[in-house]
Every structure is written in C-alpha cells, then in structure tokens.
Amino acid sequence: MNDIDAWVWWLVGAAALGIPLVVTAMPEFGMFAVGAVAAAAVAGLGFGVVAQVLAFVVVSVALIAVVRPIAYRHRTERPQLATGIDALKGRQAVVLERVDGSGGRIKLAGEVWSARSLDTGRAYEVGEEVDVVDIEGATAIIM
Fold it and tell me: How far apart are CA 102 and CA 60, in angstroms?
C-alpha cells in the first residue's frame, strides 16, 4: 500500500465520490469529486498532505459556495420565454361566436378556440376584442 502514490488515492476518492453522484443525483458529490481531483493534482506536483487536504477543502467549498446558489436560482426561476398555453395568457382574441358564461368561440393566435366568459353574467358579441386571462383544457377564459 505504501508503494501507491498519494495522487492515485485522491483519484480513487474522486471516483468513489462519483458513484453517489450518479446514484443520488446530488451535485455536491460531484463538487467534492472535483476537489479530490484538485488534491490529486497538488499531490502529483509533489506537495505534502497538508497542501493536498487544503486544496481539496478549498476547491470543494468554493464550488459549493458558487455553484449551488446559481443552480438553485436556475431551478426556481420561471423561464423568460413563455411557451404553450402560458404564451396565450394575456393575449387578445376576436369573438367569432357569441361568448358568455356557458361558452362560445374566439380566434386566438390564428386558431379557433372554444371560450367562456370569466364573468358568467357578461356576454361578448361577434367581432369584439377580448383578453385571454386563462386556459382551462381546450377552453380560453376571457374578459
């Protein structure tokens, strides 16, 4: 065991940290693995155990301190480009058939949609421009 250089042990440690990264999908293990690779590089350059451990700790902590907040922010932010039904909310449409609380038809984004009024007591006549406030299934809710 004494014949194996320290940098090899650090690479073994990095590989060992890669296993729970793949199994648990926790990116922190990957950051620790990168720290172990940095320690292997320090060991390969001939530095002592203290410098190797220090490199491992500094690189691992730096990655966790920098990457985790960025990853969290990307995970919690909504995409800036709305797609699908989210892109239709807030758009204007033209009434094709009278729309009231029970139903009707509108032209929205070049397509004919079934629609109903948000206010059940309100009716919209043919040709009126309306605003889409929500989409429920294949029905646009307008006002």
Answer: 60
